[in-house]
Each structure stands twice: as C-alpha cells, then as structure tokens.
Specification:
This protein is of the alpha+beta class. The chain folds into 2 domains: 31 residues; 158 residues, Sandwich (protein yfey like fold). The strands form 2 sheets. It has an 8-stranded antiparallel sheet, sandwiched between helices. A two-stranded antiparallel ribbon has the order 1-2. Strand 8 and strand 9 form a beta hairpin. It starts with a helix and ends in a 7-residue tail after the last helix.
Length: 199
C-alpha cells in the first residue's frame, strides 16, 4: 500500500513537470519585446517623473544639463534638458524646459531587444538583418545613428566598434520630425551623448 502511494506521488510529480514544460514556451511566446515603437521596458513617452520612478524603481538620480564642454564628464547638452538616470535598468528618461513630461527614453541595457532581435550591443549586421532597408542612416550623423520609423533610433559607435551602443525612443509625430532642429536629429544628438553605453 505504501509503495502504491509512493508510485502515485512520483507519477503526479512527473505529470506536473511535463505540464510545466508544455505550458512554459506558450507563456514566453506571448511576452512582448522590451523595445517597441511605443515603449521601452513598458515605459511610454509623455509621463511625469514620478511615473518612471515607479516603473523603473530605485536607484535613480536626477541630473540637469550643465550646458558646457563636451570633453567634460557628465550630462552637458542640450542645456534646457534634464534627465532621470536609472542605473540598474540602464535607462535614461529625458525632459525639456522643466516640463514634467518625458520626451525621450534611452536604454543601453543589452537585455532589451526589439521584436526583430536588435538592441544595445547588437552588431550593425544584426540591426540590418532585423530591419533591412527600414533602418536608415540619420541625415548628417555620418553613420553613427540609424532610425527605424518615426520613433526608434539606434546609436552606433563606428568605425572601430560597429555595435549598437544605445536605443532611443522619441516622438517623431510632428511634420518637421526629420528636418534640421526636428525631433529625429535632436533625439539622435541626445542619445549619442548620454551615459555609459551597451552593458
């Protein structure tokens, strides 16, 4: 009698393991990618600072642009920008003119990927494989940034290193988004001059 009880327990455990193995891939398959055309790690643009503190958690630090020499360490330009740095999540959130509404999110977290498999630390070849001709060089950036659609920018560090160093989410909805001084060039500039990259 004791043997039958033991065999029943072992059988139940084996069936549970099989059930978990069958269900687990289905759960993973439904998971959204961390980098999407509308969000990074679930965080969308346009929220206030406190919302990002809740979404990304501690630790975090607030920084105001110094507006100084690019050769100096730290956050320098644009001078009217501020940001919150989330070092554990390897993500920065940018604000402009003291308005509590985020206009750009930049991540250098290599664990974050788009649906096509591109993200921080991806090679240029992987970026092109994921997006083909949809990944276009940002005008005037001499091959250092590529954009996909009107919301994602992939920062590169050529020529010595062809990896994606960071990915930026920005708002390209305005008609002048790709003109000088527009959202694309400004966001590319901000993303390329951020904190530590690709880690």
């Amino acid at each position: 009698m004791q043997n039958i009880g033991h065999r029943g327990l072992v059988t139940a455990m084996a069936l549970s393991a099989v059930a978990v193995a069958v269900i687990a891939p289905a759960v993973g398959a439904g998971t959204k990618p961390a980098i999407m055309p509308t969000s990074i790690a679930g965080a969308k643009l346009g929220l206030g600072a406190n919302a990002y503190k809740v979404l990304f958690g501690k630790p975090y630090r607030f920084e105001a642009a110094k507006g100084g020499d690019f050769k100096l360490p730290g956050f320098q330009q644009p001078s009217n920008y501020t940001r919150i740095v989330f070092p554990k999540r390897k993500t920065d959130v940018y604000f402009k003119d003291g308005i509590d509404k985020a206009i750009e999110i930049v991540t250098w977290n290599k664990a974050y990927r788009t649906a096509g498999g591109a993200g921080p630390c991806s090679t240029f070849a992987q970026l092109k494989k994921a997006y083909g001709s949809k990944a276009k060089p940002t005008p005037g950036n001499f091959g250092s940034t590529y954009f996909v659609g009107r919301s994602l920018i992939f920062e590169l560090n050529p020529p010595a290193d062809d990896r994606v160093t960071a990915v930026a989410l920005y708002d390209g909805s305005r008609p002048d988004w790709n003109k000088p001084g527009g959202a694309l060039l400004t966001a590319s500039f901000v993303g390329a001059n951020g904190t530590t990259r690709c880690s």
